[in-house]
Every structure is written in C-alpha cells, then in structure tokens.
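DM from R.C. (forwarded with permission)

"hey, sorry to bug you on a friday — could you get me a structure for this? deadline for the figure draft is monday and I only need the backbone to look sensible"
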Amino acid sequence: MAILDTLTAPASAILNTLTSQAWQPLVSMCKNGTLSQLQNIQIGRLVVFEGSESKAKNVFGADKEGVPVAYLHVHDEKFWVRLALFADMVHRHNSQANMCVEEFEC
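My reply, with the result:
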C-alpha cells in the first residue's frame, strides 16, 4: 500500500487544491443567482440571515402591514449550492434530511 500512497498522494493534493479554489466561486455564483431570483417576490416578505449574524443580510418582497413574513437562517454556505443546483431541500431519507437541516433553518 505504501507504493500506492506514494503515487496517489500528489494527485490527491492537486485535487484538494483545485477543489478549494473552485468552491468559493461556485458558492458565490449560486448564492448571487438565487438571491437575484428572490428579488422577484411580489407577495409577502422573505428575510434572510446568514451564519451567526443577528442582522438580516437580505430582505425581499413588500414591506407592507399584514403581508406574511418568512425568515430563513442559512447556517452553511453549502445551502446555496444545494438550492441552486438541485433544489432538493426536502428529502425522503433521514440521513439526507439531517444533513440538509444543518445547512439552514426556517
């Protein structure tokens, strides 16, 4: 196995470097695309919090009295990628649902 590790270690290091450099641009693209779509909300209001911040990062929709208001707290940036690429925020399997719930809260 030591021979195999000697061969795969450099390839693994290169893959990890490429992945880490591509992740933030992917998150940014997915987040910005999703937020731009949310600007089209016409009925109600959506308030988005991110990370541990107590102040809303983004607010969408009408600021009128009597309209429904939804709050979304994004705990993990993986939420933006999952939502943009898969739109699979509700899962049928508990293991996947638990993983997803850690990424956001409504």
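R.C.: lifesaver. The CA atoms of residues 44 and 98 lie 28 Å apart.
me: no worries. The longest strand covers residues 45-50.
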